[in-house]
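PROTOCOL LOG
Step 1. Enter all chains and additional molecules of the complex.
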Amino acid sequence: NAGVMQNPRHLVRRRGQEARLRCSPMKGHSHVYWYRQLPEEGLKFMVYLQKENIIDESGMPKERFSAEFPKEGPSILRIQQVVRGDSAAYFCASSRLAGKDTQYFGPGTRLTVL
Amino acid sequence: DAKTTQPTSMDCAEGRAANLPCNHSTISGNEYVYWYRQIHSQGPQYIIHGLKNNETNEMASLIITEDRKSSTLILPHATLRDTAVYYCIVSKETSGSRLTFGEGTQLTVNP
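Step 2. Run joint prediction.
Step 3. Record the structure below.
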């Protein structure tokens, strides 16, 4: 049973470029969560999505950040016009639709902005 | 979500039990206690969770006090690979409940 998959594992962007981070949830999971871990800091919730719907984006910066979870395909976290402060590890977690709702995390994408 | 308090760091000898405490004195009746760990900079790994009864799985045991204001995660035979930051999180077991990670406890297992 494959776990949560994220790609790329490492991403390098120059300031002003766009970063796209992908997350494929575990099989049978239709809830996706994105968290960010800045260097030397704890994990912070960003956004929670179900298929085709953003449920809670209260942790996501208002500017330049967006997320989607289309009917088909992985969830995408998109960062436009990246700045050095966006350098961080971005983790995706998924959970099942019903019943116990334990979140299982992927390996993360490490974004470095030059 | 209720706030949790954990020691900043702990040491444990390889092969011995590691007991990691967590205080959550403001926990409400429908909130569960979750434990995750993060090894180096990997993705957080789910360990165990419980509501009020003690729980055990292949990784660990979770002991929750009767008043639910504190809990202890027990790794029965710690190995070097258990060196990690351990997070105690209180959360509702419902869809959409975000996990609020604190500072956690850095557990170092020594040979």
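Step 4. Note key features.
Chain B touches chain A at residues 34, 36, 38, 41-46, 49, 93-104 (CB under 8 Å).
The mean pLDDT of chain B is 92.
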